[in-house]
Amino acid sequence: MSTRDTPPTGRIDLSDESVHWDLGSSRSYAQYLQLEALLGAQQPASFEHDEMLFIIVHQTSELWLRLFLHELSAVLGYVQRDDLGPTFKLLRRIGIIQAQMLSVWDVLSTMTPADYSAFRNALGRSSGFQSAQYRQLEFMLGNKNADMIRVHQRDEQVHATLQRALRAPSLYDEVLRLLSRRGYGIPDEVLERDFSEPYVSNKAVAGAWLGVYHNSAHDFELYQLAEQLIDLDHHFQLWRFHHVKTVERIIGNKAGTGGTSGVSYLLKALELRFFPELWQVRSAL
């Protein structure tokens, strides 16, 4: 075997690479990502090994929620402007974000009940129920419930943000307005309603979606939008289901640290659907 055929061993040869060893006045990777603050944000309240896992899993989820909200806000803007091209790209990205959020439960489920019990008291009353980003996301997707804001009363800025999200049209409200602009008969009481209240399924809306599906060749954009909304709703239901099963696996039927009944409370959300007529229309096709 010649020297040229010898498999590389040891360190990589960097002699032909133009590495910037001196960054000069440029920001470094760590500075750009603010890693000192990010990696310094894990401050366990106990000496238990698994508390670090618990913190990082939830901080990671909040980062994915941050991106989810960022992309969803852009989707809302494009739908309002009747520009569905970019919307499809962003909704596909949201689907991949949801897959990442779903996989987080697999990591958390490696924690046993004994592992969690060892540091649970250190949480006090803190709970995922208090996640302002998650609440904002649900409001933007249409699950409106004014009572949920009460837990954020002591933070005026967060409370105000959630109040705005509660009163604003949801993604589905904006989509129904789009359907109306495209010539589908959406009743006025659906288009101009109290957006702080939960959306109620409407027969005329179901009929409009049925028309979209029957005319999918002509109205392919609306048909594609409907299917991507179903994907979003489906993935959200999977996330809720995995949440329930992970909590049940770790704490059983104990009450949650935030004061809810735990698994019993989470089960109530499993039947919630953001876009009800899109599910109903499947039975009529």
Short description:
With 285 residues, this protein is mainly α. It has helices at 29-32, 35-39, 51-80, 84-108, 113-117, 132-141, 156-167, 171-181, 188-191, 203-214, 220-251, 263-267, 276-284.
Explained architecture:
The protein is mainly alpha-helical and 285 residues long. It is 58% helix and 0% strand. The chain has 13 helices and no strands. Helix 3 packs antiparallel against helix 4, helix 4 runs parallel beside helix 11 and helix 6 packs parallel to helix 7. It starts with 28 loop residues before the first helix and ends with a helix. The mean pLDDT is 93.
Task: Estimate percent helicity.
Answer: 55-70%
Low-confidence stretches: none
The tally of beta strands, per DSSP, is 0
Order of helices and strands: HHHHHHHHHHHHH
Key structural traits:
mainly alpha, single chain, 13 helices, 285 residues
Secondary-structure map:
Elements: H1 29-32, H2 35-39, H3 51-80, H4 84-108, H5 113-117, H6 132-141, H7 156-167, H8 171-181, H9 188-191, H10 203-214, H11 220-251, H12 263-267, H13 276-284
Helix pairs in contact: 3-4, 3-6, 3-8, 4-11, 6-7, 10-13
